[in-house]
Design a protein that fits this description.
about 525 residues, mainly alpha
């Protein structure tokens, strides 16, 4: 499972790095203002569908059923199930897309009510949203194909295809902008074009795996009905984090112009560890849990759940410490250039710190949810999700005036922590989660090492201040990150979490074997 975890995480990290380059271009060309706000709102709606279906409800419902059919009834029956599911999905998505294109002005009144105060920003957001909305058809169909590849244990191919989103986006911003009224239009067309490329790559990968998926005429067979029953409640249970972020965007449009942009760029940095670790853990854990439970190996399922939690905490907690301490320099170095001023970067850093506080909880939700889904239970997370959505909305209303652009991120972090607490309680009550003492001990020691690392980096930053020139700033930040990583590794060794010399020796041995 660790190898699959690292494979998905590696491809996702590369995608996030390319996404960071794409976001830097958006910041440099559009800054933090009405134009950027309109584009981000136009991108939010189809992107929410991407995350819900690609990393949430559909994956949670489809992959266990597909894996079970594959094991119990064979490859042909699993392929037939996938083709029927693809037919139903495409029919529904095309219908939804047509409705969205027709009623986009009304949709924007709901998700961006603050834009009504500025007619130009509202009209621009409507135009851009109509360009980006077809992306949801392609990317949701791509999610099904990726789910099939994951069910076939071809995790690398499914994850690598998502690089196309950022590659096409970068090319659109850099190469196509002169041919459109503004960069925002070029970026919007890049979103839709990337969906076509991703779907094509995944369809090719399925053909190469001798598992071609031509959609069948939509029919609600008993198995498809079961898929839908499991999937619909999972939209809330698994995707509550994305729905909360959409609520943040709605509230953000009611704040001063530029607030949506400030929160977006902060969230993009927060998404580096969240997307890499959360997506990797959720994607690889669900098929493993399903396999253990189908074979009646309950202890194996508990052990896999514990290992997954250890892996993500080992990498998440130091990321939290680093983001809290270095949020200002990170935003300045990455985005503080072009139309995005250093003052904008520091304001965005405030939102980043609020998001970072809830980062472990955001990721743990993705680790804990598969424990329900693998057992065919998509109802329980729904009830928790509804309560969390209500709490997030209330906290947003309480925080928006006194905290401005920091309020929505802080509300999301608090509700994510509440979400995790309820999921843990309910899983233990159902005897679906058994936290081993050794795992809890290791996670506690990881927390201590992360705190010590954060304090050490904060101390170093107080002594060696951030330089004024961009190149030296970048080198300063890289040095701080590398120094923090070394301190963290030493702390893990001292606390007995990892055997540092042994780990280095094993890595060297693996590299020698590959070289040979």
């Amino acid at each position: 499972m660790l190898r699959n975890f690292l494979t998905v995480g590696g491809w996702t990290m590369l995608s996030r790095i390319l996404g960071l380059i794409r976001d830097q271009l958006l910041a440099a060309f559009m800054g933090a203002g009405p134009l950027q706000d309109a584009y981000q709102v136009a991108f939010r709606l189809p992107n929410m569908f991407r995350r819900l279906f690609g990393e949430g409800a559909f994956n949670a419902a489809f992959v266990p059923m597909f894996s079970t059919v594959m094991v119990q009834e064979g490859r042909d029956e699993a392929r037939l199930f996938a083709r029927r599911a693809l037919g139903v999905m495409l029919a529904w998505l095309v219908f939804l897309c047509v409705l969205g294109e027709i009623f986009m002005p009304q949709v924007l009144r709901v998700i961006a009510p603050g834009f009504l105060q500025s007619g130009d920003r509202y009209a621009l957001a409507v135009s851009l949203s109509r360009i980006t909305f077809p992306y949801l058809v392609m990317i949701c169909a791509a999610a099904l194909l990726a789910g099939v590849l994951n069910g076939l244990h071809r995790f690398g191919v499914a994850s690598a295809a998502y690089l196309a989103f950022n590659v096409v986006g970068i090319l659109a911003i850099v190469g196509a902008s002169p041919f459109f009224p503004s960069v925002a239009y070029a970026a919007a067309w890049g979103v839709t074009a990337s969906g076509v490329v991703q779907l094509g790559l995944l369809a090719w990968a399925c053909e190469k795996a001798q598992f071609g998926l031509c959609p069948l005429w939509p029919m609600l067979t008993p198995r498809i009905r079961l898929l839908l029953r499991r999937m619909v409640p999972g939209l809330i249970g698994s995707g509550v984090g994305q729905i909360n972020l959409t609520v943040d965007t709605i509230i953000g449009t009611l704040l001063p112009a530029g607030s949506v942009s400030l929160m977006y760029f902060a969230d993009r940095i927060n998404q580096l560890p969240l997307g890499v670790l959360g997506a990797a853990a959720g994607t690889t854990l669900l098929p493993v849990l399903t396999k253990h439970l189908s074979a009646g190996d309950v202890e194996g399922a508990h052990a896999a759940q514990n290992r997954s939690m250890e892996y993500v905490m080992l990498l998440t907690l130091p990321a939290v410490a680093g983001l809290l301490v270095l949020s200002g320099p990170i935003m300045i170095v990455l985005f503080g250039h072009g139309s995005f001023s250093e003052h904008d970067a520091l304001l965005s850093a405030q939102s980043l710190r609020a998001y970072a506080m809830g980062l472990p909880a955001f990721i743990l939700v993705k680790v804990l949810s598969p424990a329900f889904f693998a057992r065919g239970d998509t109802r329980t997370p729904v009830y928790v999700g509804i309560g969390v959505l209500v709490l997030n909305f209330i906290l947003n209303l309480l925080f928006m005036k006194p905290l401005a652009h920091v309020g929505p991120p802080l509300a999301s972090s608090v509700t994510a922590c509440v979400n995790v607490a309820f999921l843990v309680f309910l899983l233990k009550r159902k005897k679906a989660l058994q936290l081993h003492g050794s795992s809890l001990s290791r996670m506690a020691r990881v927390g201590i090492a992360s705190v010590f690392m954060g304090l050490a980096v904060w101390g170093l930053g107080s002594v060696v201040v951030l330089p004024a020139i961009f190149i030296t700033r970048a080198l300063w930040l890289a040095g701080m990150v590398m120094g923090g990583g070394i301190i963290y590794a030493v702390c893990l060794h001292v606390l007995g979490v990892v055997d540092l010399p042994g780990t280095v020796e094993r890595l060297q041995g693996r590299l020698r074997r590959k070289a040979g």
